[in-house]
Amino acid sequence: MTTQSGIIVEAPHELFKVSSGIARPTPSGREVLVKTLTVGLNPVEPFQQHTGVLVDEWPAVLGSDFAGVVVDVGPDCSKLRPGDYVHGCASIGRNKYTPFQETFLADETTVLRKVSGLNAASAATVGSGLLTAALCLLAGTGLKLPKAGSKSPEKDEWIVVLGGSGTVGQFAVQIAHQCGYKVLASSSLSKTYLPAKNGATATFNNRAPIDEQVAAIKERTGGGKFARIFDTTAQGYELMLQALEGASTLDTKKYLASVDDWSDFNTPAAFHEYRAELGQLGRLQSPLGVEVTTAIASWIPDFEAHLEAGSLVPLEYDLAPGAGWEQVIASLGDLESGKSAKKIVVKIRDQ
Ligand SMILES: NC(=O)c1ccc[n+]([C@@H]2O[C@H](COP(=O)([O-])OP(=O)(O)OC[C@H]3O[C@@H](n4cnc5c(N)ncnc54)[C@H](OP(=O)(O)O)[C@@H]3O)[C@@H](O)[C@H]2O)c1
């Protein structure tokens, strides 16, 4: 067995630690072997470490967002070749497919080919945010992305994004904006520039009491001209309900979408509910895994074209001061302590 270095977690609640004894996988079918160049950190990694949820095997190798270079391809690959630069979100919780190791497997149909002009750090900010926002807005609320480089004509209708300053939220703002909606986004007061930079027309304070947030939503959407609300924070279900019930005045089908796929919801039948389950990406043994993976594969060419055209853009990030696995572990601590206001990315190697 060829081994490689990376980060393992021995069992739920155990610490992250560097190991040089991780098995190096071999690609089959349409899989490519990707050498990890940069990783983007997400709340799901500490969540998996602490709870063991969404982890298939122990010791576990974690990681989600990555930028890397293809070093080997399976026999059926037709899109990617060795030397191609790619980025995206891994099939999380499955050791062969996760980027906290020197090389890992990815399906060539669900990774993004890196476009010219994106560096590895920027590229590592894109995967989970873009794909989760797309699941909620394209699959969940029926939006259609326009052709790359163009923007749909502006509608007299708003979409409300709770958490427009976060990784998922910033891509949600971009997608809704490109689809021609006016976007009202919440954030903490110090971060309103982030949703604004991504295309939001207006913002409101995500820490105000819930009745004040409902009132702000009604007032800033021209008296309630919205039928779609997306909670990217996993803290906004009650607010979504109250906003649709008490502030939305459009006489049309109403949608709520959420990144919260673990809490009990009791959504009235009048509202269409959608919950993202990006963790199903690549899990082709389950019908939901097939649905999520197929949808994402169908959007990848459009996303690549939008990133090339600049009509979807990567996020602002904080690049960790050092490089390598020890730095990833230190930066996961920074993520948990809320030290960074932006997406944290860590370089593993240059090439
Ligand atoms: N189900 C899925 O498929 C899926 C996929 C990806 C992510 N997620 C989950 O989605 C959530 C967001 O992920 P992310 O990567 O976008 O995280 P992130 O970048 O840390 O963003 C978190 C967002 O939540 C807001 N927020 C934090 N505390 C809040 C509070 N008390 N009240 C209101 N808003 C608050 C933040 O706003 P400010 O910083 O401006 O206050 C920010 O906009 C996480 O729980 C993650 O695990 C789920």
UniProtKB/TrEMBL annotation:
The lineage of its organism: Eukaryota, Fungi, Dikarya, Ascomycota, Pezizomycotina. Belongs to the zinc-containing alcohol dehydrogenase family. It comes from the Eukaryota. InterPro entries: ADH-like_N, ER, GroES-like_sf, NAD(P)-bd_dom_sf, Trans-enoyl_RdTase-like. This is Enoyl reductase (ER) domain-containing protein. Residues 11-346 form the Enoyl reductase (ER) domain. Keywords: Oxidoreductase.
